[in-house]
Amino acid sequence: MAARVLVSGASGLIGSALVARLRAEGHEVVRLVRREPAAPDEMNWAPSAHTMDFRVMERVDAVVNLSGASVGRLPWTPAYRRTLVASRVDPTRTLAEAMGMVRTPPRVLLNASATGVYGDRPGERITEQSAPGTGFFPDLVERWEAATRLAPARTRVVLLRSGVVVAPSGGGVGPLRLLAEAGLGGRIGTGGQYQPWISLEDEVRAIVHLLGSSLSGPVNLVGPTPATSDRLTRGLARGLHRPYLTRTPEWAVRALGEAGRSLLLDSARVLPERLAADGFAWQHATVEEALEAARG
């Protein structure tokens, strides 16, 4: 059935692709913007001030919150760490509180999250039942997810724990793609660390699938076949017809601080157990297929 969906972060990589798919499937979309609205489907809000017209929550069936500053921007200075937290917690809290102010809140809140909640877990098989890890990034995701608890009890809340999004440009592989294009692609550390991934198309398809699902709580949005960092970086270089000769030692990555370790060295073999059990069918089952699709 067609639904009216409120989307934050609609201009980002995932958000723009999601809005296009929702509209193609006959859904109506309302986009939240932090400037003066420039189109009939836009609505202004100020999440840093916890301000929005809460009455819109009476008029929408679902909310998809994709707000959040990029974790790929380095370094994670103390000031930028605060930005990473505030850009996620403030929008989530603002939306959840607004839902609680109306008599008939939206049926579902799909809230962005990240597989980074699991931290560095070499040798483990990780599902949605796995406990959070330790460190800045897992703590950030826990605070992000905790803000959804302010949503009304009758609103189904889904936590979209996404892996690295493989897309034609940008996404989680953006910086790695630039290195590969420059002929500097190569193994990072041992290359054996598991890197959770998902194609942009499957990320968007999974979000739409979860709009009509009965699932709630954390759902791992990752591809069904775990891949190591070496497979990901080697596949990028191969697809771009560039050499794969260099090796970045762990000490060089660790010199980037916790950001380098969390993004490039942490190992997490994350499995999409709940999404698979819910009947979702992936278009891209391996990271090589996702990379091929991203090349167009």
Q: Mind explaining what this structure looks like?
A:
Helix 1 links the parallel strand 1 and strand 2. Helix 1 crosses helix 5, helix 2 runs parallel beside helix 3 and helix 6 runs parallel beside helix 10. The chain has a single domain, classed as NAD(P)-binding Rossmann-like Domain (Rossmann fold, 3-Layer(aba) Sandwich), CATH 3.40.50.720. With 296 residues, the chain is an alpha/beta fold. It contains ten helices and 14 strands.
Please supply descriptive tags for the structure shown above.
296 residues, alpha/beta, Rossmann fold
Tally of helical segments: 10
What fold name goes in the CATH topology slot? Rossmann fold
The ordered H/E elements are: EHEEEEHEEHEEHEEHEHEHHEHH
Radius of gyration: 19 Å
Mean pLDDT: 95
> How many β strands by DSSP?
14
Give the termini separation: 31 Å
Global structural class: alpha/beta
- Fraction of residues in helices? 25-40%
Residue stretches low in confidence (pLDDT < 50, at least 5 long) are none
Q: Main sheet, how many strands, which sense, barrel?
A: 8 strands, mixed
CATH architecture term: 3-Layer(aba) Sandwich
CATH homologous superfamily caption: NAD(P)-binding Rossmann-like Domain
Proportion of residues in β-strands: 15-25%
Domains (count)? 1
